[in-house]
Amino acid sequence: MTHGTKRAAETYDAVESHEELIRWSRAYCTRAVAAHGFDVMLGPVCWEVSTRAKRRAAAVKTPTIENASVGRAIDWSTRANGVGESTPPECTMSLSWRAFESFDREEWSATLRHELVHVEQFQAFGATDHGPAFKRRAEAVDAPVRVRRFAEPKYTLSCEACGADVAYRYRECKLVRESSAYRSACCEAPLHCRKRQE
After folding, report:
1. Is residue 148 situated within a structural domain?
2. Is 123 helix (H, G, I), strand (E, B) or coil?
3. Same domain, yes or no: 114 and 168
């Protein structure tokens, strides 16, 4: 890699490859850990870029830890995780290339902080979720609890009585095929499904 390529990747708007996106995102997360006081070890975090994801902007993939739950601290030194004393197991930060292309720097940075909350929970508890503790922590680090969709859903399901949109689907499924058999929560009326015009 040339020095010029490394410099270009330091600027968000100049990111042009998966490797540069990982490098930029990892550097941002290092700064965010310090700036927002995350209790996160970035060493056991692996990085990847997904070109297939259509709904999630990023995700933290974790191994299943038996009997783990958010709120119950876990002592990694008592578990045989094969990494080392007191070190949590590896997790993977999966970044969506399509989301990166759709988001500006501020929104992408907020998305990374959202994912850092998941890493923080996993490293503390061996589990993560979007529950009340997540919401409080996300608010404290100025991260969204839910990251906006960056792709349009293929199907929209609405309430036949009031017309409110109640669900979205990206692919055909039973709910799409048999929408009228389901009821809306708002009016208890059948659902109507419409397909996005390509």
Report:
1. no
2. helix
3. no
- This prediction has a pTM of 0.74
Of 130, 123, 126, the C-alpha closest to 65 is 126
Provide the domain count of the chain.
2
Chain centre distance of CA 12: 19
DSSP label at 87?
A: P
Residues 93, 94, 97, 102, CA torsion sign: negative
Pair (92, 132) in one structural domain: yes
* 176 within a domain of the structure (yes/no): yes
Contacts of 131 (CB under 8 A, 6+ apart): 70
Q: Domain of 191?
A: 155-195
Query: How many other CB atoms sit within 10 Å of the CB of residue 81?
Result: 18
Contact, 157 vs 179, CB < 8 A? yes
User: Which residues, including other chains, have CB under 8 Å from residue 85's CB and lie 6 or more apart?
Assistant: 76, 77
Beta-bridged to residue 195, according to DSSP, are 155
Per-residue pLDDT of the chain (198 residues; tens, 9 = 90+): 333 334 434 688 889 999 999 999 999 999 999 999 999 999 999 999 999 887 789 999 999 999 999 999 999 888 755 555 578 999 999 999 989 988 999 999 999 999 999 999 999 999 999 999 999 999 999 999 988 777 777 889 999 999 999 988 877 888 889 999 999 989 999 999 999 886
